[in-house]
TrEMBL record:
Residues 51-70, 156-178, 258-282 are annotated as: Disordered. InterPro entries: CBD2, CBM2/CBM3_carb-bd_dom_sf, CBM2_carb-bd_dom_sf, FN3_dom, FN3_sf, Ig-like_fold. It comes from the Bacteria. Pfam families: CBM_2. GO terms for biological process: polysaccharide catabolic process. It comes from Streptosporangium roseum (strain ATCC 12428 / DSM 43021 / JCM 3005 / KCTC 9067 / NCIMB 10171 / NRRL 2505 / NI 9100). The lineage of its organism: Bacteria, Bacillati, Actinomycetota, Actinomycetes, Streptosporangiales. Residues 172-268 form the Fibronectin type-III domain. PROSITE patterns: CBM2, FN3. Residues 61-70, 162-175 have a biased composition (Pro residues). This is Cellulose binding domain-containing protein. CDD domains: FN3.
Length: 385
C-alpha cells in the first residue's frame, strides 16, 4: 500500500514539472511563433524606446537661451574649471543632449557633452574662455547656437588657495568695439570695419566669425592696420549676416568677442559702361569718422554733367599740412603737402552721367579735426553737397 502511494506521488511530481516547463515556454513565444518583447536584450530594448517618428524628424530643437556663468560647487580639477548653465531647449520629439564648444586659436572646438543644462571643462585658472552651446534631438538635428559667453576658469564656489600662475603673457587683448556696417559702399557682398583693440604687448591679428545654422565659422583673419576692415563676397544680396570679431596677441591670448554685428550683403555700385567725355562737372559729398588721432574719410563723387567721365583724378585739399595719408581704397592715393590725390582704378575709371563712385582713405591728424577746403576732379573744381 505504501509502495502504491509513493508511485502515485512520483507521477504527480513529474506532471507538475512538465506543466511548469510548458508554461515557461508559452511566455517566451509569441502568438505567431515570434520571440516576445520580454526576451529582447536590454540594449535592444533601449532602441525600442526612441520616440516614434524620430527617424523622420527634420525639425531642430530651439536655440538654448540665457547662457550664464555657473561655477560648480566642487571643481573636478585643481587647475581651474570653466562652466556655464542655460535654459532648456524644446523639441517636438525631445532634446537628448547638449554640446558645448570652446573658442581656440583655430576656431571653435568641441569641449563637453551633457544631458543637463550645465556644462564645463577643465582650463587654466582665471583664464577667460569663450563658448556656446547647441541642443540635439534623437534624430540628430542640431539647434542654432546660443549667444556667445565668456567666463573665467575658477576653483568653484568655495574659496581655495590659488596655484601660482604659469610664466609668460596671460593678458588677453581688449574686446573689439565700434563695429560698423558698409564701410566700403562699392563692394559687392558684406563689408564692415571696427576700432582697434589694445594689448599689454601687441595685437597680432583679428579673427572674424560668422554665425551659421548650427555654429560660428571663422571666415577671415585681418592683420592690424590703421583701417580695420573685413569683406566677404559670395553671399546672398539683400540678406543679413551676423558677425563677431576676436582679437589675439602673439601668445595666442584671445579677447572676448565683440558685440554681434548684423551686416547686410549689398550689391555694390553698378559697373559703368564706357562713353565719351567732354569735361567734368561734379559734386562731392564728404564724411569723416574719427578715433584716437585718425580719421576715416568717405567721399562720394557724382558726375553732374551730360556725358561720362572716362578716367579721373580726385584732389582733396586740407588747410596747411593737417593730415598724413596712411592708406586708401577704390583709388590710388598719394600726398603732396596738404593735398591728397586719388587716381581711378581700371574698374571705376568711367563715371556715367548722373552716376557716382565712392572712394576713401585713412589718415592721421593733429589738433582739431581738419575739414577739406576744396575738392577737384581732373583739374576742375567740384561743388560740395
Amino acid at each position: 500500500m505504501q509502495l502504491g502511494r509513493r508511485s502515485l506521488g512520483a507521477v504527480l511530481l513529474t506532471l507538475g514539472l512538465v506543466t511548469l516547463v510548458l508554461f515557461t515556454a508559452a511566455l517566451a513565444i509569441g502568438p505567431a511563433g515570434e520571440t516576445a518583447l520580454a526576451a529582447v536584450p536590454a540594449r535592444e530594448a533601449g532602441y525600442a524606446a526612441v520616440p516614434a517618428g524620430a527617424a523622420d524628424d527634420t525639425r531642430p530643437p530651439t536655440r538654448p537661451a540665457g547662457p550664464r556663468p555657473c561655477p560648480v560647487p566642487l571643481v573636478p580639477t585643481p587647475t581651474g574649471y570653466a562652466s556655464i548653465c542655460w535654459d532648456p531647449s524644446t523639441d517636438d520629439t525631445g532634446v537628448v543632449g547638449y554640446d558645448l564648444y570652446r573658442l581656440d586659436v583655430g576656431g571653435f572646438v568641441s569641449a563637453a557633452t551633457t544631458a543637463g543644462t550645465i556644462g564645463g571643462f577643465s582650463g587654466e585658472l582665471n583664464r577667460l574662455y569663450t563658448m556656446y552651446v547647441v541642443a540635439r534631438d534623437a534624430a540628430g538635428n542640431v539647434s542654432p547656437p546660443s549667444t556667445l559667453i565668456t567666463v573665467p576658469a575658477t576653483l568653484g564656489m568655495t574659496p581655495t588657495s590659488s596655484p601660482s600662475p604659469p610664466p609668460g603673457d596671460r593678458v588677453p587683448p581688449s574686446k573689439p568695439t565700434g563695429l560698423r556696417d558698409a564701410c566700403l559702399q562699392d563692394y559687392r557682398g558684406v563689408t564692415f570695419c571696427w576700432q582697434p583693440s589694445s594689448d599689454n604687448v601687441a595685437v597680432t591679428a583679428y579673427d572674424v566669425y560668422r554665425e551659421t545654422a548650427t555654429t560660428y565659422t571663422k571666415v577671415g583673419t585681418i592683420p592690424p592696420s590703421g583701417f580695420l576692415n573685413f569683406t566677404e563676397p559670395g553671399l546672398v544680396t539683400g540678406q543679413r549676416y551676423s558677425y563677431v570679431v576676436v582679437a589675439r596677441d602673439a601668445a595666442d591670448n584671445l579677447s572676448a568677442p565683440s558685440d554681434p554685428l548684423s551686416a547686410l550683403a549689398r550689391e555694390g555700385l553698378p559697373s559703368p559702361s564706357p562713353s565719351p567725355t567732354s569735361g567734368p562737372s561734379c559734386t562731392v559729398s564728404y564724411r569723416a569718422a574719427t578715433w584716437s588721432s585718425r580719421l576715416n574719410a568717405e567721399i562720394t563723387v557724382r558726375n553732374t554733367g551730360t556725358t561720362a567721365i572716362d578716367g579721373w583724378t580726385l584732389t582733396v585739399d586740407y588747410p596747411a599740412s593737417a593730415v598724413r595719408l596712411i592708406s586708401g581704397w577704390s583709388a590710388d592715393w598719394t600726398q603732396t603737402g596738404a593735398r591728397l590725390a586719388g587716381t581711378s582704378k581700371r574698374w571705376n575709371e568711367i563715371i556715367p552721367a548722373g552716376s557716382a563712385t565712392q572712394v576713401g582713405f585713412t589718415a592721421s591728424y593733429s589738433g582739431p579735426l581738419p575739414a577739406p577746403v576744396s575738392f577737384g576732379l581732373n583739374g576742375g573744381t567740384c561743388a560740395t553737397g
